[in-house]
Amino acid sequence: MNESADCPAASRAAAQHSIFKGDIMLECINLSFGVEAEGQQKEIVRDVSFTLPDEKLAVITGPNGGGKSTLARLIAGIEKPSEGRIIFNGEDITELSVTERAKKGIAFAFQQPVRFKGIQVMDLIRLAAGGNLSVSGACDYLSAVGLCARDYINREVNSSLSGGELKRIEIATVLARGSVLSVFDEPEAGIDLWSFQNLIEVFESMRKNISGSSILIISHQERILNIADEIIVIKDGRLAAKGSREEILPALSGTASVVRECRKNGVIPGEEVSTEGSAKTGGDAEC
Amino acid sequence: MLKLDEIGKRLLSEVADLHRVPEGAYNIRSNGESAGRASTENIEIIPREDGAGLVIRIKSGTKNESVHIPVVMTKSGLKELVYNDFYIGEDADVTIVAGCGIDNCGPKDSEHDGIHRFYVGKGARVRYVEKHYGSGDGSGKRILNPGTEVYMEENSFAEMEMVQIKGVDDTNRTTKAELKAGAKLVVRERLMTHESQNALSTYVVNLNGEGASADVVSRSVARDNSYQKFDAKLVGNAACSGHTECDSIIMERGRILAVPGLEANDVDAALVHEAAIGKIAGDQIIKLMTLGLTEQEAEEQIINGFLK
After folding, report:
1. Quick check: A78 contacting B, CB < 8 Å?
2. Domain locations along chain B
3. Could you give the ipTM of this predicted complex?
4. B13-46 confidence digits (pLDDT tens)
5. Within 13 Å, how many C-alpha atoms sit on residue B143's CB side?
6. Which of A19, A35, A59, B197 could be a cystine partner for B193, CB 3.0 to 4.6 Å?
7. A34 within a domain of the structure (yes/no)
8. Can you give the CATH number for the domain in which A187 is found?
9. What pTM, to 2 d.p., does this model score?
10. CB within 8 Å: B281 and A114
11. Is the CB of residue A42 less than 8 Å away from at least one CB of chain B?
């Protein structure tokens, strides 16, 4: 961080980066994040700035290993940026903990959902909803993600659940949060084709009922990109492109050629395309 | 009416969820004496002549009845050894609720050593629930050394739930079982130790008949400076199947030793042991924090679920 930006200054700085019109839900300003690996500093996110307006669904896409998931974790507070600020609804939340951000209205769906021995699906959804929730209320969230509620409500969130089941329960916990900003880290990862169709419907329905909230999805999937209002392309930790779906999507022609297209359009420098550049459209997990 | 003081009543509700005289057969032992006893037509509770324990006879074919035999101790310095023998008739289906609560406000150690022997008849089903609890801020220790012996006839079934969550300073638990053909034993042990508590739990299960099976699962949490040892041995002497599992969370400076023991003396014996010890996974805490819980609340939820 070059300067200790208080809120107004940060907002002004954000305004310069803002490409979207309307009121702003989330602003990431010059975010950087690095880790030390084998004695060397490795930059995973480099100087990324973007904004997410109110009542919009934005998708962050780009090649595997490009820093997308890290960016999502920075927003949720799981990782702390080495530089930069995060502004949520006009408030600087950079120094806030995961819990404090959750209480302010940020929900986060893990790419690899966590398993808990002994904790039942009902317990988890009730915790997500903040305590008071009837069984039928919890069932509504499960039904929304395509799970037969009766079969799952008393199941333990442990290794007896398949990856796809776990993923849908994870998404149900985010729905139960009823948050202002919902962040999904690769919701399609580990989900079979049948479930994927259902998942798209979940996001379409969330998009329809977006009033008063915003959604941020990390995804490689064209069908998720297709329902985005805004698309942000991250490559090698840097912002490679951002804009409306109409502006960005045609150039992507399927996520396989994200990098090639971005380079052709001069959005990123014309360096050699790494093997990571050929991002698959499949839903395999990012390391 | 029960001859119990307020502390005794509180202990009773902790170990047996009892707030008044239970239905069915019962014996409530308070500070070494019976505070109330009742038999039923099918279940007879007979005190031993020396006063140290009970003989409980359950008639063959008795269905859906229960026996409560909780023990409470509120006097500091009391030490007792009690033998309770259960004879469960053929094809009976019963629930037995035991448990011991010790409140020790004094400087002397209080100790209850209960030896429970179960003779489970052919085709009988028994569900046994045992809770142990300690309270009181005296310097005297609260000590519980339960010994359980289970003798299972053909095609009988026993499910044993043994819980010790709070306040017992020192425990040395031994469980021994002998299973005939087709008998099935399920054990669920849950244990949490605090401060400088010590808990030892030793199992020896002999699977002697064809088709006998045993599933012994212990979930435990060792906090502060406490120490636990889980030593489970399955012996397969016939075409049988057995599984033991020790799943433990350690916190602060807690220590746990898990000792796997499998002995197969028959080529068709299939025995499995699993053990895992570790601290709470960081991503479990983070997940619950993203749901708005503090780190401490997240830990509590994880442990509550784990020991549920």
Report:
1. yes
2. 6-273
3. 0.80
4. 888 777 777 788 999 999 888 888 999 999 999 9
5. 16
6. B197
7. yes
8. 3.40.50.300
9. 0.80
10. yes
11. no
